[in-house]
Design brief:
Layout (H helix, E strand, L loop, with lengths): L4 E7 L6 H9 L10 E5 L18 H6 L2 E2 L12 H17 L3 E6 L2 H9 L9 H14 L1 H11 L1 H5 L6 H14 L16 E9 L2 H17 L2 H10 L15 H5 L8 H26 L7 E4 L4 H14 L6
Parallel strand pairs: 1-4, 1-5, 2-3, 2-4, 5-6
């Protein structure tokens, strides 16, 4: 029987201090350096090129210290599914381990992390005719009508799909109309994949502290030039219908674009407020995806020195034979 690949999985919402933690534990410049690791980003937005400020990507210097995978692998007009994530994350983990390092899945997209831990549920192959019909309908009728239709035929899937996510709405309806079964009925039993030896950590900052950090991060994004980044993306031809532009921090610019009746300053403040609101709401929602996963270790986390020491201790207890 082949040896299982040790994989450290860290879930933490945006602005919770993931970058600082990974710098401390996995960079040789960190005071708590314990693992020769490489990061596999579990962030549904960082996969897109040209979207740097609004996604709070790790800077190039940090990526030189600790190699990162699944960043800048798509352009904003390309779809990136959870199946793409699991496939590419698997490939990265095997590659990292083959070079004598430990893969660390780290990010705040709970849906990606859950499917990586459990594996993808089996679903029917695509029916091109039904898929094209649904794509045509959603283009003509809009997301809301098809989303309401999904809520009637597959309410469980609708609960975890955003009304703006046209791709997943169509896919869930496609499964139903192809097989007569809901997509949610294809879910696997909650059992961790056996090819990996997982350590799954859930960092949990106090809610109000997290929300305050999110609001400050959004302010910083505007200071760093988010408006200019959006202008460049539009000049490249990306629109509200581009998959990448549906991300929080980007979609708001299309929903609240200034017109002749709006003062530009007021409009920017509204966009900023919307991004803050949506980001806080998203951070709360992501915890639902990783709830009740076997073996998960919840760690209260504010980014304080003692918090980093607590995380270090848990990792050492699990991976004591491969700690530096």
């Amino acid at each position: 029987m082949s040896k299982k690949i040790p994989v450290l999985v860290i879930f933490a919402p945006t602005a919770s201090g993931k970058t600082a933690l990974t710098r401390e534990l996995f960079s040789q410049d960190g005071s708590h350096f314990i693992l020769n690791a490489e990061i596999v980003s579990a962030d549904s937005q960082s996969v897109y090129k040209y979207m740097n400020i609004g996604t709070a990507k790790p800077d190039p210097d940090f990526c030189r210290q600790i190699p990162h995978h699944l960043i800048d692998v798509k352009t904003p007009d390309q779809q990136f599914s959870v199946a793409d994530f699991v496939f590419m994350a698997d490939k990265a983990c095997h590659d990292i381990y083959s070079r004598g390092k430990i893969p660390v899945i780290c990010g705040g997209t709970g849906f990606y992390i859950r499917n990586f831990l459990y594996g993808l549920p089996p679903t029917p192959e695509s029916d091109p005719k039904i898929r094209e019909e649904l794509k045509s309908r959603i283009a003509k009728e809009g997301n809301q009508l098809l989303y309401d239709e999904l809520k009637k035929v597959d309410p469980e899937s609708a609960k975890v799909i955003n009304v703006n996510d046209a791709y997943r709405i169509c896919r869930a309806l496609e499964v139903y109309y192809t097989t007569g079964r809901t997509r949610s009925s294809y879910q696997l039993e909650p059992k961790l994949r056996e090819e990996y030896d997982f350590l799954f950590l859930v960092l949990q900052p106090p809610r109000e502290l997290l929300y305050e950090r999110i609001r400050k991060r959004v302010d910083l994004m505007f200071d760093d030039g988010l408006e200019e980044e959006i202008r460049i993306l539009k000049e490249k031809g990306y629109t509200k219908d581009s998959p990448g532009m549906k991300a929080i921090g980007y979609s708001e610019w299309f929903e609240s674009e200034a017109d002749d009746k709006n003062d530009k300053t007021d409009n920017l403040e509204q966009i900023k407020a919307d991004i803050k609101h949506h980001s806080c709401k998203y951070a709360k929602k992501q915890y639902t995806y990783i709830r009740d996963i076997p073996g998960s270790i919840i760690i209260p986390y504010q980014g304080l020195p003692e918090d980093i020491i607590n995380v270090e201790k848990v990792i050492k207890e699990k991976f004591n034979s491969i700690i530096i």
